Amino acid sequence: MEEKILKNVLLRTPIVHNITNYVTVNDCANIILACGGSPIMADDYNEVEEITCICNSLVINIGTLNESTILSMIKSGKKANELGIPVILDPVGAGASAFRSNTVRKLLDEIRFSVIRGNISEIKTVYEGSGSTKGVDAAQTDAINESNLDEIIKLAQHLSEKTGAVIAITGAVDLVAVENKAYVIRNGHKMMSQITGTGCMLTAVIGTFCGGNPDQLLESTKTAVCAMGISGELAYQKTKRTNGGTSSFRTYLIDYMSKIDTTLLKEGSKIESR
Amino acid sequence: MEEKILKNVLLRTPIVHNITNYVTVNDCANIILACGGSPIMADDYNEVEEITCICNSLVINIGTLNESTILSMIKSGKKANELGIPVILDPVGAGASAFRSNTVRKLLDEIRFSVIRGNISEIKTVYEGSGSTKGVDAAQTDAINESNLDEIIKLAQHLSEKTGAVIAITGAVDLVAVENKAYVIRNGHKMMSQITGTGCMLTAVIGTFCGGNPDQLLESTKTAVCAMGISGELAYQKTKRTNGGTSSFRTYLIDYMSKIDTTLLKEGSKIESR
Amino acid sequence: MEEKILKNVLLRTPIVHNITNYVTVNDCANIILACGGSPIMADDYNEVEEITCICNSLVINIGTLNESTILSMIKSGKKANELGIPVILDPVGAGASAFRSNTVRKLLDEIRFSVIRGNISEIKTVYEGSGSTKGVDAAQTDAINESNLDEIIKLAQHLSEKTGAVIAITGAVDLVAVENKAYVIRNGHKMMSQITGTGCMLTAVIGTFCGGNPDQLLESTKTAVCAMGISGELAYQKTKRTNGGTSSFRTYLIDYMSKIDTTLLKEGSKIESR
């Protein structure tokens, strides 16, 4: 299935509309290109609807939220729902301020999301309407580990039931869940948390994969998470070989995403189905 | 001639004022430094005129257009015209929305551009007032190739006649044209389309070269297109040698721009004069 | 002392709130992570105060100043003062426009800064209320060198006396000064001026080090300047070894910051105490 997802992306070159933050926007555009999509970043109220209309998916990322783009997010999201194209939410830093938490609530009220991806602190905020977010990184007390996995899967499945969205929670271990199904994915490397934008980039890849496979949202999300994790593993190995540091790692991460093929996916994926 | 252009840039360190998008702005600043200029990014209405006054050229890029910066673009553009410094337009995604197409029309009404650079879809939109833009990348049906080259040269020359600007159309083959003269440039590599910002960066380099050679707009534009293409070729070779991917390619592209000299330019340029 | 500063950062993972420009913001976030901190970029008036409250320091950078973020800067700065966390100012391009110079004055009136870091042109503008800024890079006539060092130290110390802030002036030679003490630091490499963001990144590192050592502002600033300079030296050597250019240098600069340890600091620091 993962191979089929990837092939469709490469065949269809989905155009991905991003309303996103100004911190990691360049990485997001580059990784969308790397994994086979075509990015367009546009957030002005005057054009967002029209842009959504020429796209295959929409990614909404609240990383550097500001008042004027919230209106653009809602306008684009409603249009995407009308057109039936996938809409992905990255609730960056939800819980870090009332402004972010309230905005997430408003977005969930107005837009039907296909996928929601965040770290556990962010997803808990989405779930509970409050959380213990430590800035934009996940709080230590929240980290996913083998002992709290079952509990977090239940939370994800309940949130999926409430929102109708595929829920992806990423961290040391990654989860992708819908109401009656969950995947635990053990790809990736801890160096991914030492650069900015890994989460945002993954959300952009999910947007690309869903854009190329609008009828396979769960499988597309799972495949994107695997592809990102495998790229992280290979990037770490190359960083070590070349005596590099975190910035080389970032370069190699996008490099490997541009080289992901069905063989790498098939051989590298560490997926447990629950 | 290309060597003279390059020498003047290195001698004069032109300061380039950029009103540009937040996706590729860092790459643009870095490539301006790499090719011998000094970048300044400023877009607030309260300061743009003053900033233009201390610069040698102005680059206007509509990549992530928003209502408030349009006024800044017009204010800066008029000031640059008054001062007689080169103004370069990059109509990113023109045709993708009415907002972009209308803004391009407004900019062309209010500002006298020295150079306009875009892909063929964007330039057709500028020319016709409408186009078949596929997001921010050129539509396949529009691609320049050897069979439609003559026709596209005519379009470029007609647009140059209408606007008074040097017209640069980039793609698999690049064109630089004025009313009565055209250059076909066959440098570059297709990997340049697999990263974001190649077009924006080229426009920034054109801005730098024109800033250092304000009386040689056609030759500066041609030289910038060659320098970028040669950097792309060398970057591709190094990417292959190092088993890199698209992100390494981006690094090497800017690397080679920082190493371009008159020898590389003379030996590497593939220019056909028409 | 430098080792102690670094150890505290690694131990405490200070969260750094950045209200900054959209040109170098990604580099700033990545270098904060590289040196042991956790970055959060947020500039909307609706949330900045709350974000400051969960952070260990605040960095205000006026690189792409716009009217709406000035209010956010002041609001955050006042809150940080109230909380007693360090506030760092990077007056990018001060002197290049009245808008920037006036904003710097307003910020100094409203906020008590812990550290102010700029090139000599910017610091002179802060000092005199006017300067000879050449865009965002230091004017040649202003460059620090061995012959004007004493004079510039006096200026820095007088500015420190007026503002209560540690003053860092960076260039070919770096200075860190308070009223009755000054350090001259001779680390670094001239390639640091051939990429965008070296100054902004250093300010972000200062913010991180001060966030981890709020009672050691002078020593934290000095250590950050050394760490950045040493990273620049090592990055230059690797760039040369790999036949790289300016973009590889940028990658390696952040790489080495992610590898800085007490040994590299102790062996590499070139600090003269005055």
UniProtKB/TrEMBL annotation, chains A, B, C:
Substrate binds at residues 41, 197. InterPro entries: Hyethyz_kinase (IPR000417), Ribokinase-like (IPR029056). ATP binds at residues 117, 170. Signal peptide: none annotated. Keywords: ATP-binding, Kinase, Magnesium, Metal-binding, Nucleotide-binding, Thiamine biosynthesis, Transferase. One of its GO terms (biological process) is thiamine diphosphate biosynthetic process. NCBIfam families: PRK09355.1, thiM. This is Hydroxyethylthiazole kinase. It comes from Peribacillus psychrosaccharolyticus (Bacillus psychrosaccharolyticus).
